[in-house]
Design a protein that fits this description.
Blueprint (H helix, E strand, L loop, with lengths): L6 H12 L10 H10 L3 H14 L4 H13 L3 H14 L3 H17 L3 H12 L5 H17 L2 E12 L10 E4 L4 E4 L9 E16 L3 E16 L1 H8 L4 H4 L8 E12 L8 E12 L2 E18 L2 E14 L7 E13 L5 E12 L6 E11 L7 E14 L9 E14 L7 E14 L6 E12 L2
Antiparallel strand pairs: 1-4, 1-16, 2-3, 4-5, 5-6, 6-7, 7-8, 8-9, 9-10, 10-11, 11-12, 12-13, 13-14, 14-15, 15-16
Length: 458
């Protein structure tokens, strides 16, 4: 195992780093305990370390030696617990790093991979050099590869000038009868702050050289706090229902469960991925739709630095309210990824979508996207950008005579501050701008959002 190879180095670092700051143990005991450990006599090390603890109960050296000896005897649980005690009494960054890494190693050997990952993130808090961070990152990858359970949690706060994707000008024009109306205040763009969070779970239930199969689940939600300007606009409405609107009325939750399978032996082009999901969607506290997703993706490695993915998706969506209609959505997405000579990442994507949902809700949509991530941090800041351009066409639409056409664009820039790290996470800031121009003017909208979040360094 990768982590086991670290223990001799850890012992040497401990012996050098701790002798100077810890209280002096009883004469000769530390040296004899270390010698016994090196001579593969862990029982003797345990006896001597126990004597050291009897004389000095908060001795980091004694606890660390005891943990190493217990690990050599295969008592992984006791070794991890003793290592955690050593971490609790450690007084320098070096000793905290060594103790946390030791505990992570024993949890890994015991098959407790999630707990190993936690302790590796804790060790990252005390890493002093790039080499130590690389060691932790490599151990973390080994643990996540071995762990059948994967958990990803994200959270963000984002001030925005359009929390409800409302109309820019607040005007509704009915071309068929030549009348123009003012939209209700809750359908105009409202500013505020968005709070979002998501959890993605993956549990591997089967793996072989031919395939890998996982159960997956996800929950994501977003809620809003309206600005004083938005509250004033709503309060000016003559409609009491509109005056009662608050940020929670635009809150949304999406939940889904499914199965994901990679098959490595059915295509000469590369791995094939199959997916099936069942999900549901709430908005404003009301459950609006249930959906079923079926997808297939062909992954094509082109060379060491580039790959291409072609994905097809069908979503059947059942409306749970009379305000919506059942729909069937088809997506085809091609994505090209390339690592450039200096390590920068380039991604190009093209998506075609067909949504079948009745005469006035069906549309065709096309989108092109480009993303670029800079490999080398600039003053400790990792930079990435993206741009999407799209076109949407409705053959028929309620407020126009000849259907509806939308042209939309969005762009974002993200800065991750890698010099600031806690538990292996660094803060990031993303600026996102979006604009939709529609021939149905009430659907013309724009938004500007500044998002504050965190991202994992591993």
């Amino acid at each position: 195992m990768r982590l086991n190879a670290l223990w001799p180095l850890a012992l040497a670092a401990m012996a050098l780093a701790t002798t100077a700051h810890a209280q002096s143990p009883p004469s000769g005991l530390q040296g004899r305990a270390e010698a016994a450990l090196v001579a593969n006599q862990p029982e003797e090390t345990i006896r001597l370390a126990t004597q050291m603890l009897d004389a000095q109960p908060d001795s980091f050296v004694a606890m660390y030696l005891l943990a190493l000896a217990l690990a050599d005897l295969g008592d992984l649980q006791a070794a991890a617990n003793t290592g955690a005690r050593a971490y609790a009494v450690a007084t320098t960054e070096d000793t905290r790093f060594q103790a946390a890494r030791l505990v992570a190693g024993q949890r890994f050997r015991a098959g407790q991979y999630t707990r190993s990952e936690f302790w590796l993130r804790r060790a990252a808090n005390h890493a002093q050099t790039e080499a130590e961070l690389r060691t932790i990152a490599e151990a973390y990858v080994a643990s996540t590869d071995a762990n059948p359970l994967s958990v990803q949690i994200t959270a963000s706060i984002a001030p925005t000038d359009n929390v409800n994707n409302g109309s820019d000008d607040g005007i509704l024009t009915l071309e068929s009868i030549g009348l123009t109306f003012i939209l209700p205040e809750d359908r105009r763009s409202l500013s505020g702050v968005a709070f979002s969070a998501s959890t993605d779970l993956r549990y591997r239930i089967a793996q072989s050289p031919q395939q890998s199969t996982s159960l997956i689940g996800s929950v994501s939600g977003e809620t809003y706090v309206l600005s004083s300007e938005a509250k004033d606009l709503l309060a000016s409405s003559p409609n009491p229902q509109v005056r009662a609107v608050d940020g929670g009325d635009f809150a949304s939750v999406t939940a889904s469960v499914g199965i994901d399978r990679y098959q490595f032996n059915i295509s000469p082009l590369g791995p094939v991925r199959f997916g099936a999901n069942l999900g549901t969607y709430w908005e404003g506290g009301e459950r609006l739709v249930n959906f079923r997703d079926f997808s297939i993706e062909q992954i094509i490695p082109i060379d060491r630095d580039s790959s291409f993915r072609l994905r097809g998706l069908r979503r059947n969506q059942d409306a749970l309210t009379t305000a919506l209609v059942d729909s069937t959505l088809f997506d085809v997405v091609g994505t090209y990824d390339r690592t450039l000579p200096k390590g920068d990442q380039l991604q190009l994507s093209l998506r075609a979508r067909r949504n079948e949902a009745g005469a006035e809700s069906s549309f065709d949509e096309y989108e092109f996207g480009v993303g670029y991530a800079v490999a080398q941090p600039i003053f400790g800041v990792q930079l990435s950008t993206s741009l999407q351009l799209g076109y949407r066409r409705y053959e028929e639409f309620a407020t126009t005579l000849d259907g509806r056409e939308d042209r939309f664009v969005s762009a974002s820039a993200t800065a991750t501050f890698q010099r600031i790290s806690y538990f292996g996470f660094s803060p990031n800031v993303a600026l996102t701008s979006a604009r939709t121009d529609s021939t149905a003017e009430e659907n013309t909208s724009s938004s500007l959002q500044l998002l504050f979040g965190v991202t994992s360094n591993f």
